[in-house]
Fold:
Amino acid sequence: MIKRILAPTDLSELSEIGVRYALNLAATLEAEVTVYHVVSQEEIMQYGQQMQEGVDRGQAPKPSSNILERYQIALSLFLNEHFSDLLPWVKVREKVDFGTPARNIADQAKTGGYDLIVMSTHGRTGLSHVLLGSVTEKVVRYAPCPVLSIAPRGREKGEERTLVAS
Structure:
């Protein structure tokens, strides 16, 4: 029986597909969803670069600003902006951690006792995907529970659609 669903997101437009699927599934099954964002080393470096650019322009960062708090706010905004139609119908938790996305997602699924992970097959693209590999593929490999990977709709004919359970 599925009662706890983990829905990882990188806050991208493509990751919305997996989160929406997880929320719809949870509403149907009367399950709860934890929407989970892992702040990667790459994101921390980008954040540091943006902060330095602000300092260079004479805009000193606020001393109280905390990167983890900023991503928690970003996750809340992401959910409210894209899923306000589903939020009243599903118990949703939000969680943000620092780390390596695939490893953190698998660890969170294990320590949190999740029954299912639902995630998009696509998130980041380009060089970061080539260098880091697919987070979804790694999660499928290491997850302690089934993983439902959701491919974006409207893909070209002949491209494979992935639906994986482990």
User: Anything to note?
Assistant: Confidence is low (pLDDT under 50) at residues 127-132, 155-166.
